[in-house]
């Protein structure tokens, strides 16, 4: 029988048990022993699921208390000095949490490490901080303890380890840049590899026969120096005892295949979902005796697989390789929900089209049955059901809408241009009358338990529409009055009616469906429940106009209308795979265009269209960038271009590297862009400075992902640093991101300090 295996499993738990345990521990409600017990229970449960599906090994090391890259960083002892870690002491879990979020139940609070997107996903990792002469050691025992834990439960453990080149590529510091082929980081390799060798020898002593080493940077356009480093790295690592499965994913190996094919690793994993055309070339370079793992089940989307198509795709490889052919998901299942079996609220037709992590393992088992040709009666029934679901979805009448197709065809003639920025900003200032260094927030205010209970009761029918609307209006008024009280210049309504910045809109658009338990991890304890875009998208009625108009009626100050942009709605959903993503994005843009125009007609003078996922959607290969950026920019301008010149358009982006796409950001032509910059100490502004970015910009002055309250002087220094890079008259003062995850005491204190910082800047100007 062919080997089936899994690269990683979601760690949060079907009921988000990890999230609740983390937040309870951080709040001091439970102790460390309770948190550790939750982790053990989840790992045992998830290993059992994979073993029952027939996986040859269970992955160990895919579990993380916050982020798997941070787990590895702390194992290496690469803890920045500000966290007070002794050179010879083990790195504790509270130190890990302070690196991630700035504070933990024990230890002195400190500035959290930078966080950014994991390749082109909506998962975030904590960026390793590097410095010249950095030394490494085995500083945490968690990986080895979890291997022993899995073995004690009767499982065959295969540790999952971030590759040394990927770890260095993702890291940054004062002397190093993240990614971008910074060859100076390669000077750190010798010391780093010493610890990798120690880890592999330790694992071999535990009886581990295979180790999965993840090198997703192998699907990037690697500079020659990094390509050349591969041979030395894997010449050392593949000789330490355990067999090495070198795992690539999120794309094709491409021009790196000549180097990868020569590496002395015992196994290679490639992603055939993202790059199906690479199979022939990979087979041609495979060495005698080397195992080939084919990622054929989509680890990043939720649609049921066409098993017959995949069988045909791998038939030749199966005949040539025999038991050296392994079948797997394309990447870790971290990026999909856990179990479709919990979704009793979905209609049967839609439910039959879907596959979550548990079901993807079942699909993998059925695929092995097809490839091996050894199906029993139950397998034949399951295969018949799978075939029927694929055919029914393709023929379903609920997917396509004639009105959407006609409007999309006509949209090519819709103007995307507004007047030049200099003219617009003068008109806007005449209308808005804002001071120097205007202050605002990104949109959301704390989502208290009371607000969440209010929405829950209303959805369950325990609270009537009138009572719900009254309560939401009262909350909006409280938020508006608070902002007036502390002196913010451009207000927001706080978004108490919104469960999520994408889900809220999807619930009001045609073509979307929703799950009850389809949670995936975004970062740390932050989980999101992406909508399912199964059909053509259209706006059914105004979505935000009533709440925004009410908020504006309460004050003479401008209140922003808040929308999520088309690219972000696309990126943060599970998107239909039966048409180009560009086409779906344009459908969303047209629906949002109607909302923007209705907001303006309702008297809203400032409209923010958030696009935090704009860079996230950038293809990993530079040669594919231009096509994506063209349609992504066009979708934003299609959304925003129908308003008057004196209506101010804002956008927001967070946790992105902007250097490579700054021209496209400028081409979006938002009047004001707000960005995350506080964790990077305004370093991200370098791209805007070098480009001479022409429009207004609000560099975030404090990190909302940390509970630490910023000092006024610290924020003043940050803005002054920004003013040395960009004209002061074009700078705004705002937090890094929305405030929905924060509590009211810290929000009140932080915003008061921020407003005072802006006053200090104005007085000094």
From TrEMBL:
Top-rank taxon of the source lineage equals Bacteria
Residues forming the catalytic site: 705 (proton donor)
The cofactor named in the record is: Zn(2+)
Residues bound to L-methionine: 442-444, 495, 610
Q: Pfam families, per this entry?
A: Meth_synt_1 (PF08267), Meth_synt_2 (PF01717)
Q: What SUPFAM superfamilies has UniProt attached to this entry?
A: UROD/MetE-like
For this chain, the family text in UniProt reads:
Belongs to the vitamin-B12 independent methionine synthase family.
Protein name (record): 5-methyltetrahydropteroyltriglutamate--homocysteine methyltransferase
**Organism of provenance:** Castellaniella daejeonensis
- The record's gene field reads metE
